[in-house]
Amino acid sequence: MPLVARAAQRLLPQTWQGPGREAAWRRARARRVAAGLVAATAAVSTVAAVRPADEPTRAVVVAAHDVAAGTRLTAGDLRTVRWPVSVQTPTSATVNGLVGRSVITPLRSGEPVTATRLRGTRTLPQTAAGEVVVSVPLADPTLTSTVRVGDTVDAWSAQTGARIGSRLRVVATVTPSTPTAGRLAASAAADGPAAVLLAVPPAVASRFAQAQAGAQSPGSAVLLGFTPVT
User: Fold this and answer.
1) What is the pLDDT of residues 153-163, one digit of tens each?
2) Distance in angstroms (rounded) separating the CA atoms of residues 227 and 147
3) Which among 4, 97, 99, 172 is least buried, having the fewest CB atoms inside 10 angstroms?
4) Is there a contact between 139 and 217 (Cβ–Cβ < 8 Å)?
5) Euclidean distance between CA atoms 224 and 137, whole angstroms
6) Nearest 5 degrees, angle CA 202-CA 208-CA 210?
7) Greatest distance between any 2 Cα atoms in the chain
8) Domain ranges of the chain
9) What does 119-157 look like in DSSP terms, one character per residue?
């Protein structure tokens, strides 16, 4: 037996050493096991080398449970999961961006929360505490192209001449063709009258209602005079 082989045998367990049949059988079995391990390692390495890389993912907000129509979403109604970028979902919203929005159709657990399932957002005029917004129809739409948000107006009853209110703040204007509310995205009908939206105390709103009750046509009940903001 070569010197190197004898030196290697000394590293083996005592029962594996020597020229005996049992020792030779143990050494042969060990060689077969080692060869199998080498082959398995090579196979795993080959598979890892040829396997495609994991597909990139992105965060998608889905319903954490079934959500009924009309529900105002809370953080508990939502969760974020990872979806493959190849799967198109028409949303990039975050949980914080969806909290407080209202659902207009039911959502199933795990379903992406998309804009088509939510009530649309709208820009509301800013009012002080205790104020309400009233719409004052105008017979002459020219005023809506002159008045701007932040201007103040005085109002009189066209029938009696009585003052309805003073220094009433304009929060939006609406024209028959294009909503220009300052600028509020008002949902007036295309053929509706021009109007100015004012933030007023409830008592003034009541006087507007009384003035317009006897009007023969929209815009004929109230006369407005305004003070522009420079």
Assistant:
1) 999 988 888 99
2) 9
3) 4
4) yes
5) 10
6) 105
7) 129
8) 3-40, 57-117, 132-227
9) PPP-PPPP--TT-EEEEEEES-GGGGGT--TT-EEEEEE
Q: Give all strands (DSSP E) within 72-210, no chain letters.
A: 78-84, 132-138, 152-157, 163-174, 194-200
Find tokens 């598979």 and name the residue: 47
Residues facing residue 78 across a β-bridge: 63
Contact in structure between 63 and 77 (CB atoms under 8 Å): yes
Q: Which residue has the tokens 């529900």?
A: 71
Single-letter residue type at 48: A
Segment 62-90, tens digit of pLDDT:
999 999 988 999 999 999 998 888 877 76
Closest CA to 110 of 161, 54, 67, 168: 67
> In the numeric block, which tokens belong to residue 192?
């509706």
- Which of 169, 164, 141, 139 has its CA nearest to residue 153? 169
Rounded to 5 degrees, what are φ and ψ at 199?
Answer: -95, 120
Residues with Cβ within 8 Å of 18's Cβ and at least 6 positions away in sequence, in order, are 9
Distance CA(56)–CA(74), nearest Å, equals 29
Mean pLDDT of 191-204: 85
Q: Is it true that domain 57-117 has CATH number 3.30.70.2190?
A: no
Q: Output the CA torsion sign for 24, 30, 34, 36.
A: positive
Helix (H) or strand (E) holding 30: helix 21-50
**Do 93 and 76 form a contact (C-beta atoms < 8 A)?**
no
| CA dist., res. 169 & res. 116, Å (int) | 35
